[in-house]
Automatic annotation (TrEMBL), chain A:
Pfam family, one: FrhB_FdhB_C
Species of the source: Methanococcus maripaludis (Methanococcus deltae)
NCBIfam families: frhB (TIGR03289), PRK09325.1 (NF006807)
Residue ranges constituting the Coenzyme F420 hydrogenase/dehydrogenase beta subunit C-terminal domain according to the UniProt record: 95-246
Broad class of enzyme this protein falls into: oxidoreductase
Cofactor(s), names only, from the UniProt record: FAD
GO molecular function: coenzyme F420 hydrogenase activity; flavin adenine dinucleotide binding; iron-sulfur cluster binding; nickel cation binding; oxidoreductase activity, acting on CH or CH2 groups, with an iron-sulfur protein as acceptor
Coiled-coil ranges per UniProt: none
UniProt-listed Gene3D superfamilies: 3.10.450.750
Domain Coenzyme F420 hydrogenase/dehydrogenase beta subunit N-terminal: 11-86
Name the record gives this protein: Coenzyme F420 hydrogenase subunit beta
Automatic annotation (TrEMBL), chain B:
GO molecular function terms listed in the Swiss-Prot or TrEMBL record: coenzyme F420 hydrogenase activity; flavin adenine dinucleotide binding; iron-sulfur cluster binding; nickel cation binding
Protein's UniProt name: Coenzyme F420 hydrogenase subunit gamma
Family per similarity comment: Belongs to the FrhG family.
UniProt domain 4Fe-4S ferredoxin-type: residue ranges: 167-196, 197-226
Leader peptide range in chain numbering: none
Amino acid sequence: MDPFGTYIKAVSARAADKEILKKAQDGGIVSAAYIYGLESGLLDGVIIADKEDGFAAAPKVATTREEILSAAGTKYTVCSNLSVVKSAVREYGCEKVGFVGTPCQVRSIRKAIKYPVGYRHVPDKIALIMGIFCMENFPYNGMKAIVEEHCGIKMDDVVKTDIGKGKFWVYSKWGDVKTVPLKDTHPYEQMSCHVCMDYTAELADISTGSVGSPDGWSTIFVRTAKGEEYLNKMVEAGAIETKDIDAVKPGLDLVQKLALSKKEKNAKEVEHRKEIGLPVPY
Amino acid sequence: MVKVAHVQLSSCCGCLVSLADTYEKLLDVLGAIDLVYSQTLADVREVPDDVDIILLEGSVCLSDHHAMEVALDSRKKAKILVALGACAATGNVTRFSKGNQPSKPVHDAFAPLTEVVKCDLAIPGCPPSPESIVAVVLAALNGDMEYLEPYAELAKYGSEACGCDLITKVINKSLCMGCGSCAAACPTRAVSMDAGRPLVDKEICIKCGSCSVQCPRIRFPELIEKIE
Ligand SMILES: Cc1cc2nc3c(=O)[nH]c(=O)nc-3n(C[C@H](O)[C@H](O)[C@H](O)COP(=O)(O)OP(=O)(O)OC[C@H]3O[C@@H](n4cnc5c(N)ncnc54)[C@H](O)[C@@H]3O)c2cc1C
Ligand code: SF4
Ligand code: SF4
Ligand code: SF4
């Protein structure tokens, strides 16, 4: 099984801007790419997963650095980022839209571009597709059960959530840090994630995630010529610093292990669904 | 030269506007074809006998024998018959026509073309985007059957499209992962996202089929995996 999909190169990287690093989840690659895009004119609007009350997520079209920074960080709940793509073009009048999404959302936008039945004037306005690695996601009430019932932290008090080292981490605004072993979070996963065969956003221009790189750094796969050109410009402009992926720990081996474990587990679920006569995406 | 005709039945001209709204791409398409019939774009009275591609827009009024004849005639004359747009593909808003409307109070039955004659391809959407029309016409000209396969399937099985598909084919089957593509695709804003799932306002849905056609969790053609 192919763990990563096609890619041109893989690097470890982090944003150069300290403010981005402070607010971002990992190496701040998404925020740095977005801010660099808006400031250099490569993008004129970007899709973000904004934070709402109770650490809920809501998709939004952003056009400023402040909006991007306030939406930095991972929300482990479904955020329907595609739902605002058309308003970015129609209402905001954007001509060069930056998109970020989980691997499934990246697949959705690729489908919208290739088969754009209901996407008038959208395909040529998507200037950059960024994908974030994803093992699974949670419905909002699933995330809430993990945070409130297992960690004893109120959703309104959450400032950050993270998954790493086998645990789900919750940080409260009062400074508490609580964890739950991932095995206890499995029952709250979104069921439709179990037919998902993509860990590293294989159809993005640039994919990024925390796994494979040291804390505060991100792993990046550059997949398309467009993505490569964009990343090279970011490096030249000093927006991010990069390291050879082979020079960092734990490196691509861990990404490969996780990608394959997801694919193998979910391939079984897909087969199981077929056996019992349930539909699968075809 | 590939001969193409645009034929119209019960519809609003929106698909024609979409066809014309392809800007410079229309030149590519029209430059490659011979538009042998189109009420609006060409000064010809009769659809010629052997047309390579007929793009037929609109639903068929079953209570109007003239419309039935045009549908049958188009099938006979076309090598490839394309149900263009939601009215021809899925019935769309004409599904709700039940007679008594001016100016023909007796016209009470409207069916999508796909239910009246065998169509080779169906492009849903109200209207379908200019980009999708160009892509389908170019693929048909090039004989790219792999790309066209989803449209061929819709021509066969897609005529009952409705926002309810999201519930019955995706959410009820535990396949919806909440991307929101359906909501963006809906031309009437009948679909909103609620807690990461589509919520369909049935009073607003016109049965254009865009939402379910756009959903990657029903259909995800393999060729999308090939990026650059
Ligand atoms: C559900 C989920 C599961 C993940 N699982 C893994 C994993 O297993 N391994 C791994 O290495 N990485 C995983 N990630 C990715 C990781 O958490 C970071 O999002 C990624 O490393 C980007 O960090 P950054 O510092 O570059 O981005 P930042 O600069 O912090 O920006 C993150 C961007 O992601 C967007 N975003 C946040 N939450 C969501 C969401 N729910 N849906 C869509 N967009 C969102 C925000 O708008 C923001 O623009 C997951 C992310 C999500 C959302
Ligand atoms: S596991 Fe797959 S389906 Fe679930 S949120 Fe992640 S990318 Fe989407
Ligand atoms: S497009 Fe499909 S998977 Fe995406 S939100 Fe709509 S129904 Fe769910
Ligand atoms: S919900 Fe919207 S997109 Fe879906 S069929 Fe109805 S009108 Fe069309």
